[in-house]
Amino acid sequence: MQKKQLKELLEFGIINIDKPSGPTSFDVSEFIKKKLALRKTSHFGTLDPKVTGVLPIALNRACKLTGYFLGEDKKYIGIMRIHEEVDKKKIEELIKNKFLGRIKQLPPVKSRVKRQIREREIKSFKILEQDKEDILFEVECQGGTYIRKLIDDLGKELKIGAHMLELRRIKAGIFSENSIVNLYSFEKAVEEYKLGNEKLLREIIFPAEIIKEIYPFVEIKKESVDKILHGQPIYKKDLIQNYKFENNQTICVFSDGGFIGIFKVIEGKEIFAKSEFTMQPINNKFF
Questions:
Q1: 131 is catalytic
Q2: Are 170 and 76 in contact (CB under 8 A)?
Q3: Mean pLDDT of all residues belonging to the chain
Q4: Are residues 63 and 187 in the same domain?
């Protein structure tokens, strides 16, 4: 893939922001939009105002991909306070028996989703350190899990009560703290960009094509691109090689290294997949 121009990254890119405590996820997204004078931004998964950490922000047309990133697993590190001191081994045994694997969770009263029992998967739940009633923990879980509610439910099972003191998201799908940028560094990069130096800003924007690290991708022939961008499904004859996928599987489509869109595989003798989102070529009308 050729090195992208900065205007292409701003039109179809993602910035992994280190959300500070205080503002909402929406506030941070709007801040990025205004600073970069973009048409639109959106974030990949809400963090409570007091929660810090990994908050990927989609820029302009990359917002179309938000739903494809949201369900990815998340990892958190935090501090909970149990309301009476309990032996660490007892807590770990309870976690092992009732808070690993598929669990049932009722969203908190203040949540924006409908309050009904939902299943979520807890991949790991570790007690890292304990200082009397204060416990440092790490959780890896399915997207959409409420960590504050998880801690509250744990306290109820212990019959002593517990609440969360601090929480930080350290991973959201393919985005982690390794690639995070705080708002101060972001503002500095924007200031340099306005002075004619785009290096810092370029370094913190991921091409949205990174989605191919989540979904399998296929390559289509160059001569098929135009008709597919105008609504035609992908026929098996458009593929540069044979691919085997399950029916209804989500895939990314590329041609000559360029991103074409997100498609759903369908069963058929001739048709291979139908479009969910196609990426029209970026041109000067956006700038």
A1: no
A2: yes
A3: 91
A4: yes
